[in-house]
Write a structure and sequence with these properties.
alpha/beta; 15 strands; Rossmann fold; nine-stranded mixed beta sheet; about 450 residues; six-stranded parallel beta sheet; binds nicotinamide-adenine-dinucleotide
Amino acid sequence: MSDKTRRDFLKQTSTTALAAGILGGLQSGAFAAGSDTIRVGLVGCGGRGSGAARQALSTEGNVQLVAVGDAFVESVDASLTALKKAFETKPERVAVDDDHKFVGLDAYRKVIDSDVDLVILATPPGFRPTHFEYAVEKGRHVFMEKPVAVDAPGVRQVLAAAQKAKAQQLKVGVGLQRRHQNCYLDIVPRIHDGAIGDITALRVYWNSGGVWEPRRARDQVRSELEYQVWSWYYYNWLSGDHICEQHIHNLDVGLWLKQQLPVKARGMGGREVRADKRYGEIFDHHAVEYFFADGTVMSSTCSHMANCYSDVSEHAIGTKGTVDLNSNSSPKDNRITPFSGEAFVYRGENPDPYQVEHDTLFAAIRNGETYDEAESGALSTMASVLGRMCTYSGKEISWDEALNHGARVTPDNMADLAWDSAPPTVPDVDGAYPVPVPGLTRVLA
Ligand SMILES: NC(=O)c1ccc[n+]([C@@H]2O[C@H](COP(=O)([O-])OP(=O)(O)OC[C@H]3O[C@@H](n4cnc5c(N)ncnc54)[C@H](O)[C@@H]3O)[C@@H](O)[C@H]2O)c1
């Protein structure tokens, strides 16, 4: 089958299977039987991108990695070496020839323009809206890592592209893997069915020791922009700060439990222990209260502070009991405790949710099922952006104000960024970056 015929077939089978599924409750046999190959492209060959590629290539049926791209050649080489080793017994799965290894800030276009059915987007999240929009424009299925943006204009861009993806029946997965983890999949529906009554308060946390150290010295790079891209975590326009980059997981679970969006938020934060200038501009702690229309408050804290307590978990209190959730899947930490009666403790199996999220996405492509996580991923991203807007500005901000008027933190020209482009923040003569100051920093456009 030629590449074009194969892709048309993939599209057609999806449409036909969808119609069959809706009309007759049947699923298409063609892809379930693995009679065709899903060709995958990878944009962002770092830790998670390489992991996502491994999981994509471990799904059922024929699947091949055929194109990869990264800002830096080192990442492309390291990722392909690791993937080839992981698939030593199935070498046909890693089928990237030299013409399909792309390096540079425009690598995303070259990967997406290659003959791929699905693209994995796993760069720093500042680039995600641009990459997702382009993938949808080119009719590709997408697995994209969370967060899906770092600011309100980016969230709006993703929401608009999500509508276009839906109209084309493209399948979109977002790397909020708790949504595919058994302890959550078992417990959250019980809460929706009233196991703790009406939720009146939530607590969500990502308090940990932090992440990797900055990766390059100034004399190892071509430009200020390259310096920041290497150590992207420490720059708001690239990572969204750790409240977006990590704590989104817990905020997402809170919104999933509550089944509502907050109407406003307020909070405080700063950088206390990770304050050295080499750590860029982001905070090391944020504490936010999210208010819902019915008076429910979701209290959220996230910190990157070594030698302090650690807690990465989600909790809710309802009119009839409490629920505790934790991605460690331990029975101790995943339970429903009614105010009267027996507790329910999750003791089920715990398959790797990173694998499950790919298994379900690829099965949806093969079976022509609807698979659409872009919108909910964008809304959870917005919750994390709203939290950061509150902690940076020190203001109480409504959801609508934040979504409609939140300031852009990325450069305007993300699609055409080059190594000599001006980054949105630059250091002073001593190498120190301006850090947001509550009460002074403006976050609305
Ligand atoms: N779901 C999860 O549990 C989970 C875990 C880790 C990371 N992530 C997410 O995955 C994404 C990547 O994180 P990571 O830990 O893999 O980071 P990483 O630094 O290991 O990898 C990022 C890669 O993107 C490359 N890159 C940077 N800008 C690029 C551009 N414009 N075009 C192409 N490549 C570019 C970098 O060179 C690097 O190789 C982030 O959004 C992060 O939040 C999710």
